[in-house]
Amino acid sequence: MEKAFTYARKYAPESCALYYNDYNEYWDHKRDAIYSMCKSLYEKGLLDGIGMQSHINADYDGFSGVSAYTTAMKKFLSIGCDLQITELDITMENGKYTLQQQADKYKAIFQAAMDWNKNPSSDGRVTAVCIWGPNDANTWIKTENTPLLYDTNHQPKLAYTTLTSMIPQSEWGDGSNPGGNDKPIEPNEYGWYFQSTFEGDTDSWEGRGSADVLTSGRTAYVGSEALLVQNRTAAWNGAGRTLNPKAFVPGKEYSFSVNVEYFDGDATDQFFLKLAYTDANGEAQYATVAEGTAVKGEWVQLANKNYQIPADATNMVLYVETAESTNNFYLDEAIGAVGGTSILGAGESKPFHLGDVNADGVINGMDLALARQGISSAFSGN
């Protein structure tokens, strides 16, 4: 199990939360086994939460009774990870239990979750309660077991009205903020939210369009490897990384930097660091964060220490592309940080002009002298 979570953490997008989800999780022996395993995974940074499937009956006591269920819930939350009730339905077992018993048990579970979130004993929170079906006519168990909040005619049952009465009308939202894990991601001691070094790991960077990405030891700005972006068939085919909105909040300023190098094609190439996002109208947008001209065989830094993410941005991807070429290129030391943070990098490339032997930006007699000296010495030494 640990290997599964290790690989998932390594290769899943940064914004992907990893949960262990199971059934009969309130049974004491299984509960304790889940607790021990998930505590170890959480302490190793491999687990974000636990899912309780929660297919139970309306008996207030017994095997899946309220006491056994809430004990398991609190035990899992005590680890410090979040918890979600992922598939809740409460069967009446073909008339064995009453609508009132069903309503009472739904209420008890919701109340336990609400009570914990108001007065938690750890960092963990109940971030979702998902009902497993729309109505009793559409349930994975037989309709006569009537396990859901709406009847077969899609009318609210006692369980539904009981749950809605638990929250004062003044506290109901409009659906625009459904909740979830709202704990922000904090930067490290340097003010960085992420640092992609590409030392044996693509670090959640992915190819865009036809492009493929992999780590390569052919060149590196820092360390021994960089990210190779290849098989591009269009200028926009580059490499990108999804930005987690818990760290990169729309409307706020951030500092972004990445170093780029290429070896093929023309003497110079134009590169862009951009942000792809969806705006408030659901339209795809592509905003330039930074740009730079690279000289073949030299690193150039694309950086903007005060880039403001559009306030309506969702589905954000930071990516690198070229203006026109489809050359392979390399990325290294990609960093996202607190706004205003200066990030060291290769800086801007100095464009090379034919005849400017000493690369001082001026072609004059000094260049002619150096050229003659170079010819006579076959350009050996300095």
- CATH level-four homologous superfamily name of the largest domain: Glycosidases
Helix run count: 6
Helix content: 10-25%
Terminus-to-terminus distance: 59 Å
GO molecular function, one term: hydrolase activity, hydrolyzing O-glycosyl compounds
Protein name: Glycosyl hydrolase family 10
Keywords: Carbohydrate metabolism, Glycosidase, Hydrolase, Polysaccharide degradation, Repeat
Pfam family, one: CBM_4_9
Task: Give a verbal description of the structure.
The mean pLDDT is 92. The longest helix has 20 residues, at 99-118. Helix 4 runs parallel beside helix 5. The chain is built from 6 helices and 16 strands. With 382 residues, the protein is an alpha+beta fold. It has 3 domains: 2-171, Glycosidases (TIM Barrel, Alpha-Beta Barrel), CATH 3.20.20.80; 192-338, Galactose-binding domain-like (Jelly Rolls); 355-382, no CATH class. It has helices spanning 2-11, 28-43, 66-77, 99-118, 158-164, 365-376, and strands spanning 19-22, 49-52, 55-57, 82-91, 126-131, 192-196, 205-207, 212-216, 226-230, 239-242, 253-261, 268-278, 284-295, 300-308, 314-322, 329-338. Strand 12 (268-278) and strand 13 form a beta hairpin. Strands 6, 8, 9, 11, 14 and 16 form a 6-stranded antiparallel sheet that branches. Strands 1, 2, 3, 4 and 5 form a 5-stranded parallel sheet that branches. A 5-stranded antiparallel sheet has the order 7-10-15-12-13, with no helix packed on it. The chain is elongated and about 100 Å long. GO terms for molecular function: hydrolase activity, hydrolyzing O-glycosyl compounds. The active site is at residue 87. This is Glycosyl hydrolase family 10. It comes from Ruminococcus callidus ATCC 27760. It holds the Pfam family CBM_4_9.
